[in-house]
Design brief:
The chain starts with a helix and ends with a helix. It has one domain. Helix 1 crosses helix 2. About 80% of the residues lie in helices and about 0% in strands. The mean pLDDT is about 90. By secondary structure, the protein is an all-alpha fold. It has 4 helices and no strands.
Length: about 110
């Protein structure tokens, strides 16, 4: 059970860092108005920082489920979803780095 919690916790922290800090930073440097989380995700897709806003919305929903106190009978379903979405989350890190390099080089 401890390894499930560690993985889901790391997944939630990484997704939160990307959405709350990095996407907000991108909005700031692109002079975008403050908006909702969904707005930030959609703008990140629009500028090419991520491949799919829909995937990131799923990631955000799953992050919220992880953050809630979940029951032991749902932990396996959450873990399964984390395993399915982890490749997209990790791929986004590479895409974000590439987008960030483009910003610096401009």
């Amino acid at each position: 059970m401890e390894s499930f919690e560690a993985l889901t916790s790391r997944f939630a922290r990484l997704s939160d860092l990307i959405i709350q800090k990095i996407f907000r930073f991108f909005d700031t440097i692109n002079l975008e108005p403050v908006g909702t989380v969904r707005d930030r995700i959609n703008r990140a897709e629009k500028v090419g920082a991520i491949d799919s806003a829909d995937e990131f919305i799923e990631i955000r929903i799953l992050r919220n489920e992880i953050a809630d106190e979940y029951k032991s009978e749902t932990i396996y379903e959450i873990f399964k979803q984390v395993m399915q979405l982890t490749p997209a989350l990790l791929k986004s890190v590479d895409t974000i780095f590439a987008y960030s390099r483009d910003i610096v080089e401009d």
